[in-house]
Amino acid sequence: MSSVLVVGGTSGIGREFARVRAERGDEVVLTGRDTHRADTVAKEIGARGLALDLARPQEIAGALADVGHVDHLVLAGVSRDENRVTDYDIAAALHLVTLKLVGYTEVVHVMRPRMDDEGAIVLFGGQAKERPYPGATTVATVNAGIRGLVHTLAVELAPIRVNAVHPGVVGDSPYWRAKPAEVLAGLRAGTPTGQLATVADVVDATDFLLRNRSVNAVELSVDGGWLLG
After folding, report:
1. Contact (Cβ atoms closer than 8 angstroms) between residue 73 and residue 111
2. pTM over 0.90
3. Element (H, E) at 21
């Protein structure tokens, strides 16, 4: 049995990863911004829930104060941001940069003393870093920043392993399921496999990065070859 902390585990891929690991018999702690939601989701999947807001990094240490030893740390918390440089929302940009880069780093800072040398960490990025779109000004930038963060953490925390997973279009995720059918069909047509990544695919990739002892400082794309489309 392993101990797992999933930051951003109340919805989407983070929730499914937490569920899979809890079902496997692991001791899972998941976090979300809202206390009630974190507790509710945790009870549904057999985990423990905590309130934690990555965009408020000064409060992270207190939120994680009573979390004990952790073998695997997954930083899956994300925020959707439609920000264009031609109509720039500074507050939204600061929120996302703080959440994804400062917040992720502060969680690692707090949890490092509670991890053994055999531990492993996975950070979530995204393929907007390679294929930005109008409105991805901040999203593409912070996801590219995950590369530098993974590299420096892998050096600083060695021998703890640190990797990143970069999902492409995850067709059955809550965000993409809400898109019109013709949009999803067009994305599938532009993907070499002819199918979009699934939540289960990303969960499996995350589990692989945590499990394989020789995989370190890797950025794993899970997109069916979408970048080649």
Report:
1. yes
2. yes
3. helix 12-23
